[in-house]
Automatic annotation (TrEMBL):
Location of the region described as Disordered in the Swiss-Prot/TrEMBL record: 128-154
Phylogenetic lineage: Bacteria, Bacillati, Bacillota, Clostridia, Eubacteriales
Organism per entry: [Eubacterium] siraeum DSM 15702
Protein name stated in the entry: SsrA-binding protein
Basic and acidic residues composition bias: residue spans: 131-154
PROSITE patterns found in the cross-reference section: SSRP
Amino acid sequence: MEKTALKTIADNRKARHDYFILESYEAGIELTGTEVKSIRDGGLNLKDSWISIDNGELFIKQMHISPYEKGNIFNKDPLRTRKLLMHKREIMKLLGQVKQDGLTLIPISVYFKGSRVKVQVGLCKGKKQHDKRDAMAQRDAKRTIDRELKMRNR
C-alpha cells in the first residue's frame, strides 16, 4: 500500500459558509499542461464555481485558473468549463440525489494527490440566513469559552 502526499491547492471557504455539506466525493479533473503549471504556481480560485451534470458527465463551471505566464499560445480561457472524472454509477447516484432532493454539487477543495490534481466534490444543501447566524453565534460562544478557560488556567 503506497502513501500519497496530499497538498491542498485551494479551499472553497465560502461553500462551507453558504451550504451544509452532506457528503463529499473525490473526482479527477481534465486539465491542459499550462493549467497544471498555473495551479502549481497557486493561480486557482474556487469562489463562485459550481458543478453540473450534463449527459451523464460532471462539469465544473466558473473555476478560475489564471493563464500561465510562460504559456503563450497554449493558454486556455481561464473560466472554461472543465470535465470532472468519476465512475458512471457515482455520477448517476449524484444525479438522482440532485434531482430528487433539490441538493447541489459544489467544489469544496482542489488538491494534489501524488502528481494528479483532484477535486473534492460536496453534495450540499443551501443554508438559510438564520442558519448562518446560528453558526456564527456558536462559533463566537466557543471562542469566548476557550478564552475564559485559557485565562483561568493561567
